Amino acid sequence: MATVKDQLIMNLLKEEQTPQNKITVVGIGAVGMACALSILVKELADELALFDVMEEDKLKGEVMRLQHCSLFLKTPKIVSGKDYNVTANSKLVIITAEACQQEGESPPNLVQHNVNIFKLIIASVVKYSSNCTLLIVSNPVDILTYVAWKLSGFPQNRVIGSGCNLDSACFCSLVGERLGVHPLSCHGWVLGEHGDSSVPVWSGVNVAGILLKSLHPALGTDADKEQWKEVHRQAVDSASEVIKPKSYSSWAIGLSVADLAESITKNLRRVHPISTMIKGFYGIEDEVFLSVPCILGQNGISDVMKVTLMPEEEARLKKSADELWRIQKQLLL
């Protein structure tokens, strides 16, 4: 007896089910799920794969909830698994997995712990998707982007750190809040190392092409009576301020990552402040990854913008590079 499907549909063609725009998220915690949902809402993939080593029931539950929303989404296939074969044929692999710091664990040991996790992740991802682009979100993001580059053997254009993309977005949002202007009309960059030692480029902050520093030369300095330095401090502290009441931060980084994924999958060639190999720039002689404005498209990072920095901004960038290299030299890869 013919099934309902057979009575309803006449198949005319046996199609190969190879995805053309598959995105994989490795690490399905709060950040990974925020990335996944943001990617789905933006309709960036024809297949979304979620990989984690978490309990199978929990992973199944997370994916079922997304699959049950299929009516509202336009990603035809959402899959998950604890075997890396689920990541096969990915165009973009987003890595959010990282180790939680144990009580009494030193920062250097924590970094090495993450390196050990990355050894398995990167080798497995490369095995199943040798032509993919890697987007690293795990912290410390600049160091782990370097680690992913070394372990993968990929060209540097295809290994990207989320870097200061969110830092810069938060910075522009706070500038806009002060001025009463929408953040999209406020242009400014936070560069260098993601986190406390990031560098706000006050010399370039502008609205409608008007440099704020031309109106207020003390902008961002200790002599600034308007205390614009607080804008950068608030941007840096924003994640910890969010974490205090809710124990984690996820939605903003998820949207930021989807913003980067969109530039890659749609070949938009937009400029983003993301972590890339910066050797040869600003007097930096070591193989370190820091955020600078980069053109991002289907081949990853195709170009780096030659931003002119003030001497003090360049010095801070160099100081971050030296500190990262000091840590990286001690890593066991």
Question: What do these coordinates show?
Answer:
With 333 residues, the protein is α/β, with parallel strands linked by helices. Helix content is 40%, strand content 17%. It has ten helices and 14 strands. The protein has helices spanning 4-8, 30-42, 56-67, 107-128, 141-152, 165-179, 212-215, 229-246, 251-265, 311-328; strands spanning 22-26, 47-51, 78-81, 92-95, 133-136, 159-161, 186-187, 190-191, 199-200, 206-207, 210-211, 270-277, 289-297, 300-304. A hairpin with a 2-residue loop joins strand 13 (289-297) and strand 14. The longest helix is centred in the middle third of the chain and has 22 residues, at 107-128. The protein is globular and about 85 Å long.
**Low-pLDDT stretches:** none
**Span of the ends, CA to CA:** 60 Å
Net shape: globular
Please provide the ordered H/E string of secondary-structure elements. Answer: HEHEHEEHEHEHEEEEEHHHEEEH
Query: In DSSP terms, counting alpha (H) and pi (I) runs of 4 or more, how many helices?
Result: 10
SSE blueprint and pairings:
Elements: H1 4-8, E1 22-26, H2 30-42, E2 47-51, H3 56-67, E3 78-81, E4 92-95, H4 107-128, E5 133-136, H5 141-152, E6 159-161, H6 165-179, E7 186-187, E8 190-191, E9 199-200, E10 206-207, E11 210-211, H7 212-215, H8 229-246, H9 251-265, E12 270-277, E13 289-297, E14 300-304, H10 311-328
Parallel strand pairs: 1-2, 1-4, 2-3, 4-5, 5-6
Antiparallel strand pairs: 7-10, 8-9, 10-11, 12-13, 13-14
